[in-house]
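Hi V.,

Quick status before I head out on leave. The structure for the redesign project is tokenized and pasted below; the design run finished overnight.
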């Protein structure tokens, strides 16, 4: 692209073909998760939080640490689950400073209905790969993620 004021050529970063393919497939899958969540009146984020909740209880900090979502975002989802009767807050016997988020019976039924479908699809998709393909895709994803994080964070 040419800068009209200075007459300079600015190199436009053209993503390599395979990176474009990778990115588009990643976005396609994210879009499918988002659409599926909307059918059940869930956001993409609330769906992943619902997947991690159980009858034993989970703290907000644990959810944030596992999912890398901001505390405010997780709190908003938790409050919506409590309001809808899917979750309740309970005392945390291990740490009185934090509360446990526990699925109610209504929440367990909703989780089973919504999340089991996704988990089955993911398990079937992964099982359709050979054991070696499963190892390769996981190893490469870990490597790619680690490099991206380091580059973005300036390491």
């Amino acid at each position: 692209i040419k800068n009209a004021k200075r007459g300079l050529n600015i190199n436009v970063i053209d993503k390599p073909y395979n990176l474009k393919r990778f990115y588009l497939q990643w976005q396609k899958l994210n879009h499918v998760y988002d659409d599926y969540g909307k059918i059940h009146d869930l956001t993409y984020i609330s769906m992943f939080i619902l997947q991690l909740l159980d009858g034993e209880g989970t703290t907000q900090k644990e959810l944030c640490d596992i999912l890398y979502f901001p505390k405010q975002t997780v709190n908003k989802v938790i409050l919506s689950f409590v309001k809808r009767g899917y979750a309740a807050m309970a005392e945390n016997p291990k740490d009185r400073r934090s509360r446990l988020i526990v699925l109610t019976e209504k929440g367990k039924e909703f989780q089973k209905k919504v999340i089991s479908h996704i988990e089955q699809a993911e398990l079937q998709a992964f099982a359709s790969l050979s054991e070696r393909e499963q190892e390769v895709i996981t190893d490469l994803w870990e490597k790619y993620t680690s490099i991206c994080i380091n580059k973005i964070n300036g390491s």
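Above is the designed sequence. Strands lie at 2-3, 8-9, 58-59, 87-91, 99-103.

G. will cover questions while I'm gone.

Best,
W.
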